Amino acid sequence: MTLRAVLFLIQTGILIAMAATRNVMRAVRVFEFGGPEVLKLQSDVLIPDPKENQVLIKVHACGVNPVETYIRSGSYARKPALPYTPGSDVAGVIEDVGEHVTVFKKGDRVFTTSTISGGYADYAVAAVNSVFPLSDKLDFRQGAAIGIPYFTAYRALFQKGCAKAGESVLVHGASGGVGIATCQIARACGLKVLGTAGTEEGMNVVLRNGAHQAFNHREANYIDKIKEYTGMEGVDIIIEMLSNINLATDLQLLSCAGRVMVVGCRGPIEINPRDTMSKESSIIGVSLFLATEEEKHECATVLLDGIEAGWLTPTVGSEYPLEKVVKAHEDIIHSSGARGKMVLLP
Fold it and tell me: How many angstroms separate the CA atoms of 116 and 131, rounded?
């Protein structure tokens, strides 16, 4: 074989390798349900192609939500087919569009409320109706903090909780992603906002994001402090992130016809149903997955207006590179106190 032939084969091999490299990406894959250790970062995952009414997004940041840990563990009612890539709240730039997509083009800054291929990756495919323009007022990390937290907060307050201006709302765990979103939305819509957090820093975050008053839920007498603050009237709405701990006590804090909105739960709890009878109070579960297209559109309209008006400003907390995804899933459940939305940075 001549030297020229050898060089040709080498160059051809390099070109083929380069072409192959361009078609693959890094993505976190789950091959079995279990603990955080089942999250496997792979570097040879094919970049998905957007199909009809879909877009391909170059991911700059992806939010991490507690529900993703429940799904990963196999304990959640909704289980994806294995293997899968977790992640819904992507912020990034449109890389490609599928057929019939006219509202977005390559280069557009966007955020999502869900993905088809998974957001813990360098690229993600999403249905066009779950993708929204990302204002230049927000960076990509903030964009990744909008999706599930803000849509869930709005749904809990208004679509399920029927909140009205002038009512009071207590946000348990108000320093996390959904909690901050709830405080901002409730304050902008004229509610009296109370929030709890587990640290002094967390309480300050809550106050900076719209709460009129903050309480430390690690203090032994914090419930008494809330009762003293609200007086005989009680609280109209409670947004509950940890109902397996707080639900029985929540019922003691409600006003007549008050509502507990169950946004988060990590296990069972025993309550006395008589506590609902004495005030004709309600316990209402909230699931963004059950929202109709009309309800999602309503959420999006309000939230996009909020970004433009300036009251919707996500607070980003802990940031992790994609390589530290296992640590992120450990921390979101076991950390000492949230101070904003947790994000992955590919």
Answer: 11
How many CA atoms does the CB half-sphere of 191 hold within 13 Å? 29
Whole-prediction pTM: 0.90
At 78 the pLDDT is 87
Beta-carbon-side half-sphere exposure of residue 2 (alpha carbons within 13 Å): 3
Specify the pLDDT at position 71. 96
Distance between CA atoms of residues 229 and 212, nearest Å: 11
Which stretches of the chain drop beneath a pLDDT of 70? Answer: 1-22, 337
Enter the DSSP assignment of 158.
I
Q: Evaluate whether 316 touches 193 at the Cβ level (below 8 Å).
A: no
Q: Give the integer Cα–Cα distance in Å for 126 and 231.
A: 48
For residue 13, the SS3 value is helix
Rounded-to-integer distance, Cα 285 and Cα 230, Å: 24
Query: Which residues on adjacent β-strands are paired with residue 256?
Result: none
Block residue for tokens 């607070």: 315
Per-residue buried b or exposed e for 71-96, using 16+ beta carbons within 10 Å of the residue's own CB? bbeeeeeeeeeeebbbbbbbbbebbb
CA distance to 187, 211, 246, per residue, from 169 (Å):
10, 10, 15
Distance CA 213, CA 170 (A): 10
Beta pairing class for 131-133 and 109-112: antiparallel
Largest CA distance in the chain: 94
- Distance between CA atoms of 145 and 313, rounded to whole angstroms? 9
Whether 217 and 245 have beta carbons less than 8 Å apart is answered as: no
Q: What digits encode the pLDDT tens for the residues 166-223? A: 999 999 999 999 999 999 999 999 999 999 999 999 999 999 999 999 999 999 999 9
| Separation CA 227–CA 255 (nearest Å) | 11
Instruction: Categorise residue 160: left if φ over 0, alpha if ψ from -120 to 50, beta otherwise.
Output: alpha
Where residue 207 falls (left for φ over 0; alpha for ψ -120 to 50; beta otherwise) is alpha
Report how far residue 88's alpha carbon sits from residue 145's, in angstroms, rounded to the nearest whole number. Answer: 10
